[in-house]
Design a protein that fits this description.
Elements: E1 8-11, H1 23-31, E2 34-37, H2 40-49, E3 56-58, H3 64-76, E4 81-84, H4 96-105, E5 110-113, H5 118-126, E6 133-138, H6 146-157, E7 162-167, H7 172-183, E8 187-192, E9 200-205, H8 206-215, E10 222-226, H9 244-253, H10 258-269, H11 273-282
Parallel strand pairs: 1-4, 1-5, 2-3, 2-4, 6-7
Antiparallel strand pairs: 7-10, 8-9, 8-10
Helix pairs in contact: 3-4, 6-7, 7-8, 9-10, 10-11
């Protein structure tokens, strides 16, 4: 009816196996006036598989400000929108959260059509306590995020609940090394390719998981599940899992100078500073 706002339907899509889509999501996708998709090419494959014909509009991190305003106007005019991401539930570590907030702030009804979740699935598969967990998404990364990243990891150390992180294959071993250094050698699980043919979950302590993925090239998107800091003092990191250069790089990446990093690594490894310095210089700058 004219003058009545439409509804934003936040729709979960499969994280791998297409059979995980729900009957409700299929109905909403088919009946919506339009679908807002993170990657329209990716979503079109999903729609074609289920023989759904619906207008697609791109909505992603790089156009969310202008496109969000346009989508809001259509919703306020009475149209219904199905919001989808490339996989899983929009609003979790993606720009869907901004559109949801925009609609709520402007009186547009919002509802969720639930479905597959990589984070929840990984927690259940981990074998680590899942009665209480803290979802951290992706840790800050990049050239200008070192201090923010170090602060987040420091906060995680004090978190008593099970911790859930997302990570890319390109940063996985570096992140495991940083977590080992900061948290101690906690029990953890790493899941990849969830719901897909090559689904895999590696379980063990952080030291063992780091050694595994240094030997086996990480492939796919990863979910890390790490036990919370329930002990008064966590066990000491197994520094033998890191090379001297990697150990020094941990502290440099956290914002320390090279000499301060060498000093810290030497103390923790029980080595003279000159030995660590020589090893770093022999194998290139940290």
């Amino acid at each position: 009816m004219e003058g009545t706002a439409g509804t934003l339907y936040v729709c979960a899509t499969p994280i791998g196996n297409l059979e995980d889509i729900t009957l409700r999501v299929l109905r909403v996708l088919a009946e919506a006036d339009f679908i807002a998709a993170e990657d329209t090419r990716h979503t079109l494959k999903l729609l074609n598989h289920f023989e759904i014909k619906a207008p697609l509009v791109s909505y992603h991190e790089h156009n969310k400000t202008a496109r969000g305003a346009a989508l809001l106007a259509r919703l306020q005019n009475g149209e219904t929108c199905a919001l989808v991401s490339d996989a899983g539930l929009p609003g979790i570590s993606d720009p869907g959260a901004d559109l949801i907030r925009l609609c709520l702030d402007n009186g547009v009804p919002v509802t969720v059509c639930p479905g597959a979740s990589a984070a929840v699935m990984a927690v259940v598969l981990s074998g680590i306590g899942c009665a209480r967990y803290a979802f951290e998404g992706f840790l800050p990364h990049g050239k200008y995020a070192k201090k923010e990243r170090a602060a987040r990891i420091a906060a995680i150390k004090a978190e008593p609940r099970t911790i859930v992180l997302y990570e890319s294959p390109y940063r996985l071993t570096d992140t495991l090394a940083e977590l080992l250094a900061a948290l101690g050698n906690r029990q953890a699980a790493i899941a990849r390719e969830l719901t897909k043919k090559f689904e895999e979950v590696q379980r063990g302590d952080l030291s063992a998981l780091l050694a595994h993925f240094k030997a086996v090239e990480p492939k796919g998107e990863f979910v890390l599940v790490i036990e919370g800091g329930t002990e008064p003092a966590d066990s000491e990191p197994n520094w033998a899992a890191l090379s001297v250069r990697e150990h020094v790089s941990l502290y440099i990446n956290a914002g320390q100078s090279e000499m301060d990093a060498i000093k810290a690594a030497a103390k923790e490894r029980g080595l003279p500073k000159r030995t660590v310095y020589a090893e770093v210089k022999l194998n290139g700058q940290a």
